[in-house]
C-alpha cells in the first residue's frame, strides 16, 4: 500500500485523539510533523506544510470531515485566562460527559458533576468553589465516598485537566471542561451560564459591567481587544473610561469571590428548589435529597477501577485509553489563573437579573 496524503490526516487524528486538548501552536506543529513523516515515506507526494491561517483552517475542515460521521468535532476555543487558541476533540452527541466513563467510575463522575454544580452556582459569578465546599459534595452522592477518596479524585480531576485549582485552593472549570463539556454545561445551567458579549463563548473568568442589570460580560482578552477602540459598554452605553469607571468593572471568576461567602452553604439549582438558595445558611443535608438525583447516573460500561489516587502518572493503570492527555492539557491549562486578583472588588450583588 502506497503512502498517500490521506495518511497525514490519519497520523494527525491519532495524535490529537490521544491528547484531547492542545494549543493551536502545538496542533500545527503536529500537522507539520505528520506531513514530514508521510513525505519521508513517499517522496513523490506533492504536499507541503504551510504556516498560514487559511491552510490551517482548510486542514481543520478536512479533519472535521473525517470526524463528523463519528459525532466528533475538532473544535476550537480561546483559553479564558490568556486568550490562547485551544483545540480539542469534542463529542457532539450530547452525552459528552459519558466520555469521562473511560477514566472515571460512575460515582466519581457523579462527584465531578456535583462539584461542577457548586462552581456554576457559586455566588457573585465567582464560578469557583473552596476545597472544603468541594469535599462537602460527597454528602450529595448516592454511594459513599471517603474524604481521602474525594481528595484523591479531586486531584485527579485537576491532574487530567478537568478542573483548575488556584493558589487560594479554589476549584474552577478548566478550558478542557468548558470546551468538551460545553453542551452539558449549557443545557444543565442554562440560567447560570454567562456568555461573553464579544465572542459569545461561556465566561467563567473575565469582567462584568457595573451598571445594575447590564448583561455585558467579557473575557479579559476580549475586553482588552474591545477597549482598544471602544469606550462604552456595548449594551448600556455607559462610558467606561470616564473618571475611574474602569475600576468599577466587576470581576467574573474567582476574584469575585468574597471571603466567607460560601461557608456552610450548599447551592441547589433554581429549578428544583426555588427559594432555598438564600433561605438558610446551612442545610447541606436537607438539600441533598431532592437535588439532581436523577441526573447523576452515567453509564459506566465496565466497573472501572479508575484512578485510585491522584498522584499517579498514568502508569500501569491497565486502562490505557487516555494516558497521554495529561501533559498537553496541563501545558495549556496550568498557567496561573490568579492574575485577576488585582481587579476591583465586586460592587453589586446582582443575583437574578441574568435571564
Ligand atoms: Zn470572549
Ligand atoms: Zn453595561
TrEMBL record:
This chain's source organism reads Polyporus arcularius HHB13444
Zinc among keywords: yes
Q: What class of enzyme is it?
A: transferase
Which named protein is this?
Answer: Non-structural maintenance of chromosomes element 1 homolog
Q: What is its main location?
A: nucleus
Show where the RING-type domain sits.
196-237
| Ranges annotated as biased composition (Acidic residues) | 275-299, 330-343
Homology family: Belongs to the NSE1 family.
Name the Gene3D superfamilies on file: 3.90.1150.220, Winged helix-like DNA-binding domain superfamily/Winged helix DNA-binding domain, Zinc/RING finger domain, C3HC4 (zinc finger)
Q: Where do Basic residues bias regions lie?
A: 312-324
Pfam families recorded for this chain?
A: SMC_Nse1, zf-RING-like
Where does this protein have compositionally biased stretches of type Basic and acidic residues? 256-265
**One GO term describing the cellular component:** nucleus
**Compartment annotation:** Nucleus
Region Disordered: start and end of each range? 254-355
Q: What is its EC number?
A: 2.3.2.27
Which residues does UniProt call coiled coil? none
Name the chemical reaction catalysed here: S-ubiquitinyl-[E2 ubiquitin-conjugating enzyme]-L-cysteine + [acceptor protein]-L-lysine = [E2 ubiquitin-conjugating enzyme]-L-cysteine + N(6)-ubiquitinyl-[acceptor protein]-L-lysine
Summary of the function given for this chain in its UniProt record: Acts in a DNA repair pathway for removal of UV-induced DNA damage that is distinct from classical nucleotide excision repair and in repair of ionizing radiation damage. Functions in homologous recombination repair of DNA double strand breaks and in recovery of stalled replication forks.
Query: Origin, by domain of life?
Result: Eukaryota
Amino acid at each position: 500500500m502506497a503512502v498517500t496524503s490521506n495518511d497525514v490526516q490519519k497520523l494527525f487524528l491519532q495524535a490529537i485523539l490521544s491528547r484531547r486538548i492542545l494549543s493551536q501552536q502545538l496542533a500545527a506543529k503536529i500537522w507539520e510533523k505528520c506531513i514530514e513523516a508521510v513525505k519521508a515515506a513517499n517522496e513523490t507526494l506533492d504536499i507541503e506544510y504551510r504556516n498560514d491561517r487559511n491552510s490551517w483552517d482548510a486542514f481543520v475542515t478536512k479533519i472535521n470531515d473525517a470526524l463528523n460521521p463519528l459525532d466528533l468535532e475538532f473544535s476550537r476555543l480561546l483559553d479564558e485566562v490568556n486568550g490562547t487558541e485551544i483545540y480539542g476533540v469534542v463529542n457532539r452527541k450530547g452525552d459528552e460527559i459519558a466520555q469521562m466513563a473511560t477514566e472515571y467510575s460512575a460515582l466519581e463522575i457523579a462527584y465531578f458533576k456535583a462539584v461542577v454544580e457548586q462552581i456554576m452556582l457559586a455566588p457573585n459569578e465567582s464560578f469557583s468553589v473552596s476545597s472544603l465546599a468541594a469535599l462537602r459534595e460527597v454528602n450529595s452522592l448516592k454511594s459513599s465516598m471517603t474524604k481521602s477518596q474525594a481528595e484523591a479524585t479531586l486531584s485527579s480531576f485537576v491532574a487530567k485537566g478537568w478542573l483548575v485549582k488556584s493558589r487560594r485552593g479554589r476549584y474552577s472549570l478548566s478550558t478542557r471542561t468548558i470546551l468538551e463539556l460545553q453542551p452539558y454545561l449549557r443545557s444543565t445551567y442554562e440560567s447560570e451560564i454567562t456568555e461573553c458579549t464579544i465572542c459569545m463563548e461561556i465566561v467563567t473568568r473575565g469582567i462584568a459591567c457595573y451598571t445594575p442589570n447590564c448583561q455585558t460580560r467579557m473575557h479579559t482578552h476580549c475586553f482588552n481587544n474591545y477597549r482598544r477602540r471602544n469606550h462604552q459598554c456595548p449594551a448600556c452605553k455607559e462610558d467606561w473610561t470616564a473618571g475611574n469607571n474602569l475600576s468599577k468593572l466587576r470581576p467574573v471568576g474567582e476574584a469575585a469571590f468574597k471571603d466567607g461567602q460560601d461557608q456552610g452553604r450548599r447551592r441547589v439549582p433554581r429549578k428544583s428548589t426555588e427559594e432555598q438558595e438564600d433561605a438558610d445558611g446551612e442545610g447541606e443535608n436537607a438539600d441533598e435529597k431532592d437535588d439532581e438525583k436523577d441526573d447523576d447516573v452515567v453509564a459506566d460500561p465496565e466497573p472501572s477501577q479508575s484512578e485510585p489516587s491522584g498522584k499517579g502518572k498514568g502508569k500501569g493503570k491497565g486502562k490505557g485509553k487516555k494516558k497521554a492527555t495529561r501533559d498537553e492539557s496541563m501545558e495549556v491549562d496550568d498557567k496561573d489563573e490568579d492574575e485577576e486578583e488585582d481587579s476591583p472588588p465586586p460592587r453589586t450583588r446582582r443575583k437574578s437579573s441574568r435571564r
